[in-house]
């Protein structure tokens, strides 16, 4: 049970964390992508944490990071060289999100290897472009490589849906740092574990925060056609109740860049907030075009848009936007180590990927070096990471999940 904290107390608790972007779960098409750190610098805007909230939209205290698992361990691990994999979008329109995950996992692996010369871990990366069809071609490459004993990913919900059965049949443990569609854990897979809250947690939490703390009375919910966008929009609409105005709800397609039709509906309805359920590649031009059309109220989006690429692409139109994420901000030490390694700030899912890689490597260091052994280890795992406490239910959901709310400043 969490006690509610005041805004002032929360501000003190947040003093030690960096305002970086959070998480998102993706299911997207290909295009040109970029790295998030340079984008943040060019925009002149930051994505700053406002509050950690529960499903009722109430603020809850920030957990201590002092006892978090570290990839270095005690430095005495002894194992033969062992391989883990990461799968997600490393190229394409939403590539920044996959790169954040890859870098977070790589940082953990590098720190483990430096501290444990007698137990070296190899991280192999697989580019799915965030495309479910491409992911079904990549998944067999992963499962057919018998040296791979664990997987971080897939990153987006659509590709996870398309490949989960393949990994389950192979008995390969799959821990995702970002896929948040709630139905993924309804498939009966025994190998899938979600490293953050799903959209059935995110939707109600953000909806209650908007109508409660922020006092919003009328919200237009706009969604893209990805598994992520549809699932989050449904959770948001149901939780908003009468505050969700059906007259200005609408649909766009992944890859759209022109939104005059839905913007006309929004301006006619005159809401006090717009919630966009989708990714930054579409959220940025939507925010720009809303602003150009005279919309001066609050633009809100979920983890799919919570990346410095949103602020870089939307420019000044992003200022004041509210962005949510099941992922939290990066602690100072992690931020410094990440920036030193990759010459950019950590972004959405970087901390989750770091934690999940650390859990896999701890299992390997403790002697779980086959697929069945590592799967059993993760199934029974309990412990704190930098982002949160990790312990999974039999379906692969975290037993305790919270959401972060951010503001673009």
Key traits:
single chain; 409 residues; alpha/beta; 7-stranded mixed sheet; 5-stranded parallel sheet; 13 helices; globular; disordered N terminus
If strands are numbered along the chain, what order do they take across the biggest sheet? 1-14-11-10-9-7-8
Number of H- or I-type helical stretches: 13
Please, what is the average pLDDT?
A: 89
Termini separation comes to: 32 Å
Strand content: 15-25%
Can you tell me the residue ranges where pLDDT is under 50 for at least 5 consecutive residues? 1-41
Helix and strand pattern: HHEEHEHEHEEHEHEHEHEHEHHHEEE
Helix content: 25-40%
User: What global shape is seen?
Assistant: globular
Supply the helix-strand structural class.
Answer: alpha/beta
Mind describing the biggest β-sheet? Answer: 7 strands, mixed
Gyration radius (Cα, Å) is: 20 Å
Number of strands: 14
């Amino acid at each position: 049970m969490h006690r509610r904290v005041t805004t002032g107390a929360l501000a003190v608790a947040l003093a030690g964390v960096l305002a970086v972007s959070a998480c998102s779960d993706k299911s997207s098409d290909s295009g040109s992508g970029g790295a998030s750190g340079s984008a943040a610098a060019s925009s002149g805007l930051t994505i700053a944490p406002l509050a950690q909230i529960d499903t009722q939209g109430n603020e809850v205290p920030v957990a201590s990071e002092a006892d978090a698992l570290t990839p270095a361990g005690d430095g005495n691990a002894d194992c033969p060289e062992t391989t883990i994999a990461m799968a997600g979008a490393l190229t394409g329109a939403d590539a920044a999100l996959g790169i954040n995950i890859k870098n977070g996992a790589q940082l953990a692996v590098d720190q483990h290897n430096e501290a444990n010369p007698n137990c070296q871990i190899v991280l192999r990366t697989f580019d799915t472009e965030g495309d479910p069809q491409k992911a079904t071609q990549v998944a067999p490459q992963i499962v057919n490589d018998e040296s791979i004993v664990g997987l971080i990913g897939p990153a987006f919900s659509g590709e996870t849906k398309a490949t989960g059965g393949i990994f389950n049949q192979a008995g390969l443990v799959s821990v995702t740092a970002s896929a948040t569609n709630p139905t993924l854990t309804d498939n009966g897979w025994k190998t899938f574990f979600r490293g953050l809250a799903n959209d059935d947690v995110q939707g109600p939490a953000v909806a209650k925060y908007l109508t409660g703390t922020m006092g919003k009375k009328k919200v237009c919910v706009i969604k893209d056609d990805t598994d992520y966008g549809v699932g989050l929009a449904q959770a948001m609409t149901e939780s908003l109740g009468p505050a969700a105005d059906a007259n200005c709800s609408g649909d766009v397609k992944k890859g759209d860049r022109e939104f005059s039709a839905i913007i006309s509906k929004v301006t006619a309805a005159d809401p006090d907030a717009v919630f966009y359920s989708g990714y930054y590649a579409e959220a940025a031009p939507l925010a720009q075009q809303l602003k150009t059309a005279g919309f001066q109220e609050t633009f809100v989006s979920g983890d799919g848009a919570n990346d410095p690429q949103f602020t870089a692409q939307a420019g000044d139109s992003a200022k004041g936007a509210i962005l949510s994420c099941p992922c939290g901000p990066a602690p100072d030490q992690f931020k410094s180590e990440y920036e030193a390694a990759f010459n950019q700030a950590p972004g959405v899912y970087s901390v989750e990927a770091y934690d999940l890689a650390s859990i896999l490597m701890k299992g390997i260091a403790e002697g779980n070096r086959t697929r069945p052994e590592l799967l059993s280890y993760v199934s029974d795992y309990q412990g704190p990471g930098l982002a949160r406490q990790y312990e999974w239910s039999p379906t692969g959901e975290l037993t305790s999940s919270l959401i972060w709310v951010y503001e673009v400043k």
